[in-house]
Structure formats: structure tokens, C-alpha cells
Amino acid sequence: MYQELDKCPRSLLVCEKSNFEHEKSRHDTHVSKHYFNHKVSVVIPECGALSSRLASVINNFSKYFLVKNLPVYEFLDKDFLKNVVWNGALYALSYKTSIDQDNTIALLPNIVTIDLTNKSMDPEGKRYQRVLSGLKERVPLKSDFLLGRHNSGADGDRALQSLLSRYQWKEHRPVVSSHTLKDLPCPSLHALDLRGDQRSCDPHSFLEWLGAVSAGVSCDNTAASFLSTYVCPEPQTLVSQALHCTVSGLLLPEDIYSLLQELRRYFDEPKFTSWLSLTVHGFMDSPVSWGDAEHGFHKGGENFYNLVLFKNQDYWLHMGTGSHDRCPP
Amino acid sequence: MALNLANWLTAHLGYSTVAINYVVDLQQKKQEIGKPKCVLELFDTFPMVQGKSRPIKVLNRLTVVASDPSHFRPNAEYKAYDLVAVYPKTEKLFHAACMTFDVDIICVAVTEKQPFFFKRSPVNGAIERGVFFEISYTPAIRDSTMRRYTIANAISLMETCKGKNVIVTSGAEKPLELRGPYDIANLGLLFGLSEGDGKAAISTNCRAVHLHGETRKTALGIVHTMKKDQPLTVRQEEEHVPPSKRAKIETV
């Protein structure tokens, strides 16, 4: 009867290692297919402040819009389709809807269950009319949306502005925060030892340590306070300073990719540290995790990936999801 | 006042729908079932659900405590409530409630030892009809003896129903007796529910109960009538003959 008490809700962690310059490396697919990201955090040991180039990449992340009470059929408007959806990447996700309670709507840049780029969805066609009337009359879905678009063309801007002008909207920029941590015990990682057999720590402990750094949980395990007994996993070194930078908002895969390219150039000059890490968190209530793999929320809606970059362009990729998800690619 | 507090807390805890329970004990003589207070009278503004842009939804629920099938006579007063529950005190009434009564919820005793055993046939009958079994968790919070009864009765129910058609509700009278939804889903593990059933007991099953309650106001669960505001012409009056008098439609 009580076998269930021992089990926790299932979570999956997929780890792989490769090199950015390898021809079969799939890092660009992984980044571009993870559509809805709400937070990116970068941890760089032995670094005091963001370099000017990194700071400029981060500050150039695209702005996004919060639109209130937008009916879904507006996405099918002819002008909007032609200038915005077909001409560049548009991402939209319903805002403040829980996937385990409400209708959650997401607009993916390429394939939707209503495939907006399919020829049969030509605005004059019958199928388009049927879908449009369905969304307008039979299932009138309205929601607050977060809309983000990767810049590509003035026509698109005009069509988007005309859509926005019909509803209540507000423009937002991603929020950036960074701080320098002093005297931080850091795990030592070696590019060839992904599993943590000898020269590195194992992936679960490493990710737990990263989480502790992001959440500001101290890994001292001092006897003075019993709030936390987290310790930095072995093998470890003590670094005098480390940079922790987070960006949050509706973050587009294209922007994250440019950040990744800039981080790859970090090791062009000699540095004290041998690794740095980039963590990207997906929205907990997004209907999809990678590509169009379904994502659900059971007791936790995590869907994130973490890249550890090494000096010689080697990298590790950890992808984590929760119980109601399909295995990441 | 307590009602208001409870609802504010619920909006902070993250529940999106709440039912106010009116209990009537039909075992005592001359008990009348009154009309519930209109929900709009109780609140000036409905609090927003935490993390959403919608306000909380409030329903009225009637719980009838009875020991004899003749006590339970559904009439027009029952229609005023969104949900109807019955708390059977005898095996005969439990059987009748599972198989025939027009109720949405059957309450399982949590404050005393279950006076009868759960037999498979009425439980399966209830599951087929879309009736749900309710386990209340607040008595378990109040007192350790009641905690034993709650767990024992819940486990005995799970052995018969295999975790299907169960909802876990609060029955709270004070705000401090409320707990968050994910905590209750975990509490379900102690009652013998699996991970998925525990989460369903506070989410999908509760929504199913709500929809079941709504079907009592419709004809055969398909046709839903609404009052029209405009004055009717003669032809429109003919069309507004109650659906039950029309040719019967096959239930899907």
C-alpha cells in the first residue's frame, strides 16, 4: 500500500558532451527548438564583471509585449499572417494560465497544430475559413499573451503595431541582474569526464550546486545554522570571485543563440577558469518543451537545459524535464 | 467574516474554485432545506486567483446527512445548489446513493469509524454514473484520533474503488485549517492514492464533479436553457417549450 510513498514524481536528465566545432554537433538545434524561455543565467568562475561585449549582447535582447484579452483568431488575420508570421519568427504564449488548470495557447514559429505555413492554410482556402470561423464563434478563446518577435522587416512591425493598437498592450524589456560572488567553492570539471567518475563531480550534484548559487543558498554547511546542509560537490576549488548574471522575460531562442556565440568567444583570451555555465529555463506552463514535444505540469514544471562550455570548445549539455514530459531530444 | 477570510486565503493558496457547504441533517425531524445565499451577495469583489488573471469561482453546495432513503427527496430546493452531496449513515442508504440518487458527491466518514464496509458493486455503480467519493482532510488536522479514522476509512475505500472517482476536500471552518493544493495532492499518498490520482483528486476530478452538478440543470446533460432578456413574440414562445417535452434524444 505504501510503496508509492518512497517514490518521487519522475524527472528526467539527459546529458551529452560534444564540441562546438564538430560537424554533427546539435547545439544550434537544441537552442533554437526550445521556444519559450523565461530565464537565462550565466555563471562564470574567476570573473569579476561582465565584459563589455557580453553586456552589449545581453542588453540587446529583443523586447516583448504583454497584450491583454487578445482573441486567438487575430493570429489568423490575413495581413498579420503575411507580414508577421510568415516573415520572421513570432513567439506567443498565453500569460498567467496554468497548464494543469486552464487552456494554454502557444504560437510556435514553424509548426502549430493549425499549421499556419501550410499551403492549405492559404487565406482564400476553405480550411482557413473553417478554422477562422471555429475560433471566432464556436470556441472563442481569449487570453493575455506574451508576444515576442525577432526583428526582420518594417512591414512586420507595421502589422504587429496595428494588431497591438486594437488591444491593451505594454512593452517590456528583459530584466538583467548580475552580482559577483566572493570566495565561492566551485566544483572542478574536466571536459572528458561527463559522468563524474573521477575528475569531475556527477551531473546531479553539479546542477544542484548551480541551483544553490542561483538561489543564494550558502554551501558552507556551518553548524551555526541548520537551514541547509548543502555542500559544494567534490572535487572542488575555492575561487576568489565568480560572476552570476540572470536575464528574465520572454527570451527568444535567437537571442540566446547570440549569447551562446559570445560566450564561446570568452575563452579566446587566456582565463583562470576552465569552464563556464549557461542555464536556460523554459516556462513552467508552456505547452511544449523542445520542438513540439508536449510539456505538462505535475508537481513541478521544470524544462531547462544547461550548457557547460570548456576552453577547447568542448561542451556539456544537460537537459532536464519533469514527470509529464516527453524525453528531450 | 470567516467566510471572507477563508476565500481570501484560498485565492492566495491558489485554488480557482471554491464551494460553500450548507449541511442539513435529515435524521432529525422537520428539517427544512433553505435556499443558499446568492454568491454575489456574499462578496463585493471576488478575489483574484494567485497567478491568474481570473477571479475565484464560488459555488453553493448542499450536504444532506441521512440514514434512510425516504429522507432524501430531491425537489426544487435542491436545484438552487450547484452541487449536491449526501452523507450516508447506513449501508442501505450508501447503496441507494451509489446506484440511484441524483447526487454529485458521496461523503466518506472521517470523524468516526466507518459503520459499514464498502462493497464493490455499489462503488462500481457509483463510478459508472459519475458520482465521486469525498474525503475531507480538516478533521485530520484538528485531532489525532480523527486522523486515524480518516486514514483507515480512506484506505478501505481505495481498496474497493482503486483510487478512481475520489476527491479530497477541506471542510474548513477557519482559515488556518486550509492547506495548499499540492500539499493535499501529497496527502493523498497517505490515503492510498497514487501520484496521478492524488493530483486528480484536487484538480480534474473536482472539475468533473462541478460539470456533473451542472448537468442536473440541463435536459439529459445535453440541452442547456438560458433565460432570454427580450420579450417573446408568439412564434418564439412556441419554440421555448421546455426541452423535456420534445422528442427524446439519445444520450451519447
UniProtKB/TrEMBL annotation, chain A:
InterPro entries: RNase_P_Rpp40. GO terms for cellular component: multimeric ribonuclease P complex; ribonuclease MRP complex. One of its GO terms (biological process) is tRNA 5'-leader removal. One of its GO terms (molecular function) is ribonuclease MRP activity. Pfam families: Ribonuc_P_40. PANTHER family: RIBONUCLEASE P PROTEIN SUBUNIT P40. This is Ribonuclease P protein subunit p40 isoform X2. The lineage of its organism: Eukaryota, Metazoa, Chordata, Craniata, Vertebrata.
UniProtKB/TrEMBL annotation, chain B:
This is Ribonuclease P protein subunit p30. It holds the Pfam family RNase_P_p30. GO terms for biological process: rRNA processing; tRNA processing. InterPro entries: Pol/histidinol_Pase-like (IPR016195), RNase_P_p30 (IPR002738). It comes from the Eukaryota. It is found in: Nucleus, Nucleolus. The keyword Transferase does not apply. Its main location: nucleus. Component of nuclear RNase P and RNase MRP ribonucleoproteins. RNase P consists of a catalytic RNA moiety and about 10 protein subunits; POP1, POP4, POP5, POP7, RPP14, RPP21, RPP25, RPP30, RPP38 and RPP40. Within the RNase P complex, POP1, POP7 and RPP25 form the 'finger' subcomplex, POP5, RPP14, RPP40 and homodimeric RPP30 form the 'palm' subcomplex, and RPP21, POP4 and RPP38 form the 'wrist' subcomplex. All subunits of the RNase P complex interact with the catalytic RNA. Several subunits of RNase P are also part of the RNase MRP complex. Residues 232-252 are annotated as: Disordered. Component of ribonuclease P, a ribonucleoprotein complex that generates mature tRNA molecules by cleaving their 5'-ends. Also a component of the MRP ribonuclease complex, which cleaves pre-rRNA sequences. One of its GO terms (molecular function) is RNA binding. It comes from Salvelinus namaycush. PANTHER family: RIBONUCLEASE P PROTEIN SUBUNIT P30, RIBONUCLEASE P SUBUNIT P30. GO terms for cellular component: nucleolar ribonuclease P complex. Keywords: Acetylation, Nucleus, Phosphoprotein, rRNA processing, tRNA processing. Belongs to the eukaryotic/archaeal RNase P protein component 3 family.
